[in-house]
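ok trying again, last paste got cut off:
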Amino acid sequence: MFRFTLLLAALSLHAAVKLPAVISDHMVLERGAPVRIWGWASPGEDVRVEIQGQSVAVKASPDGKWTAWLRPLIAAGPTELKVNETVIHDVLVGEVWLASGQSNMEFKLQQANHHDEEVAQANYPLIHLFQVKRKVSDTPMDDVAGQWQVCSPESAKTFSAAAYFFGRHLLHNLNVPIGLIESDWGGTPAQSWTSREALSADPALKFILDHWADALAKYPAAKEAYDQRLAAWKKEAAEARAAGKTPPRQPGAPEGPGHQNTPAGLWNGMIAPLVPYAIRGAIWYQGESNANSDEHAYQYRRLFGTMIEDWRNRWGEGDFPFLFVQLANYQTNGRWPVLRESQNETLRLANTGMAVIVDIGDAHNIHPTDKQDVGLRLALAARAIAYHQPIEYSGPVFRTAATEGGAMRVYFTHAAGMAARGGGEIKGFEVAGADGKYAPAEAKVDGSTILVSSSTVTSPVSVRYGWADDPDCNLVNQAGLPASPFRGDVPRYGW
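nice, full thing came through this time. structure:
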């Protein structure tokens, strides 16, 4: 009897295959590409993975880790994935996209325009959603917390609105299952989502790590002062509530150990564990938190490009499509034009696309509620860049400018049918002479170029468009997509 008990225990231990959270019921696997299935088991244990007629056998390594590679799968579902005796149910095969960034990506469907109607209609059995729970880590994690859910009014209402509308458009256009993985955190900078190795390898980004080292050195004193402010706030808040008044705003915690702004902290906790999972590409909505100074807004072009290349290198899937949202119009600190310019510069990287939303923001709300058009414009970029559909996906993008008589001729890509939205005069252009003083200018379309001039600047040498936090600009192309703001008087990386 004792030997029989030991045998049962050994068999139980042998069968204990553990899978990451993202490999679970309702998962969506990427079609048409090699797919990794991975997990943990007893050292040396045999593991067999089965799906769509494939059967792959592997053995767990001495540390208990194992990886099985599946040949490209065809779009289908629902089906089952079997790992030894574990059966994963309701598995779809289609298109998988990772959605990340800060609060505007985190912005929920139940907060978007027409939210009651949108939530009620969010019944899409072929869209499955996975939300990564927040996690800061000093080292790369093996797993995340979260679970796949079928898209329904209940699951979709608290999911990213921009990602949902992006996925809905792709479903309607591609007619294949869509998997959306949301991993975001409001108020966070791009360096939190970039690996420590990538940040350390670029001397131009040394200031980020230097700033963090300084913050850690000052943390004990900052934490002590914060604790005092917090105690005072709790007392004031209690008094305000007792008097029926609105409590004052709670003070923010200082940067330090475990803070979400930790360089690489969110990469380690919320992205690195997803890297083995095959994806088609990523969508990104972030930048506000990197526009906190002139230096940071300008350096974002280097940081953001580094982050994209870092993600691509880690996934090992080549230059997968990386599509991002440019900052909307909003009355703020004067640094957003430079941050938008940095986002423009990132288009130098292959297979990148940018959704310009300078026409649909809210001057007084950093979280514009029109996420339908955000998702649509990201989806147009995906259709063109990821799926090679012959459609226009971008508004006019500045290429170069040259002096021509008493005017500036501006050259664009995505320039077909340029005009003012709704007709009338084109707004938003300015020119400057050698003194660098800009004046409003008249803009006339000439084919795929625009001739810009001002009666007050007789010898212009530079031109800019929409160069303000909340600009009044209206240039679109024949697809109705807005031009991206730019200035033509700074060095450029090239295209």
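cool. Residues 224 and 254 are 10 Å apart (CA to CA). The first helix runs from residue 2 to 14.
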